[in-house]
Amino acid sequence: MKPIRYVFDVALDAFDTFLSDDGWAIASHIALSALMALFPFLIVVTSLAGFFGSKDLADQAASLILQTWPSQVADTLSGEIHNVMTTPRGDALTVGLALAIYFASNGVESLRVALNRAYSVPEPRRWYWLRLESIGYTLLAALVSLALAFLIVLGPLLLATARRYVPLIVESNETLLNFARYGIAVLSLAIALVVLHTWLPAGRRGFLQILPGIVFTLVASLVSGIVFGQYLARFASNYVTTYAGLASVIIALVFLYFIAAIFVYGGELNAAIIKSRLPHGVSLQAAQLPERED
Q1: Residue 31 CB partners (closer than 8 Å, separation 6+)
Q2: Which site in 19, 44, 109, 147 is 20 to 30 Å from 272, CA atoms measured?
Q3: Is the pLDDT of residue 72 over 90?
Q4: What is the count of structural domains for the chain?
Q5: Is the pLDDT confidence value at 216 over 90?
Q6: Does position 292 have pLDDT exceeding 60, yes or no?
Q7: What tens digit of pLDDT does each residue of 2-56 get?
Q8: 290 located within any domain
Q9: Residue 283 included in any domain
């Protein structure tokens, strides 16, 4: 019974801290920032894809980003995303792109605020270094998205080549590619969570210290997506009658709000576990100082 009691106590402590840290308000901030950052980020992806000579990669990257979203949510944004990805832009790699990168990095900054609160660490770094770091993460995410999209595009060619040498491979490309696309999206999300929890907030934590929150975020996000998708399949008309032309935006915002709340609670869960294992008299903040790392 002790392990069960420990899990319950830690989970309850994390939820209490989530409430005291204004977790719901932070989640709404993350959701709005993420939605506002999504389209500038897609502009960055499109511009980089055009720079490398293939705008089709941008479409694949956008599809990969939305792969783990419920289809009802992704479909509501598909028209707007298609417009962003296909609109010719003469401002590529100019002031317009610079502004798009800056606004896209706001999403990263909102995650930093949430994790700093969750881990109870003050931010000692200068604001301009933080902004440059967020811009760097944004560009890295865009490049990684294009690289993963390239693997998806290359998939059918690799399968066709493999069939020449291994006749037993007879499955349809569509089924295998859909499975690969979903697996790549989940793996990318897991790696992104590791990077965010490790380097985005102030202080330092070991991999095992951030692992529980990452696992919780992954599992709860996938479950939340399935449940929210089932809800929309039955009651999506409620959003249309209430919000009219804004229904697609509101649906996406509500979904992101749930995911953001899960992300914030994942950070609080890690902090609660770290705190529960500290020696008497050692604060959570002191335990995360760089000089205390092994």
Answers
A1: 253, 256, 257, 259, 260
A2: 109
A3: no
A4: 1
A5: yes
A6: no
A7: 788 888 899 999 999 999 999 999 999 999 988 888 888 877 777 777 666 566 6
A8: no
A9: no
Q: How confident is the model at residue 268 (pLDDT cuts 50, 70, 90)?
A: very high
Cut 0.85: pTM above it: no
User: Is residue 148 a contact partner of residue 188, using CB atoms and an 8 Å limit?
Assistant: yes
Residue 73 token pair: 């949510």
Q: Decide if 292 is inside a domain.
A: no
Residue 48 near residue 90 (C-beta atoms within 8 A) = no
Average pLDDT, the chain: 79
Q: How far apart are CA 236 and CA 232, in angstroms?
A: 4
- 204 is a domain residue: yes
Domain that holds residue 116: 2-277
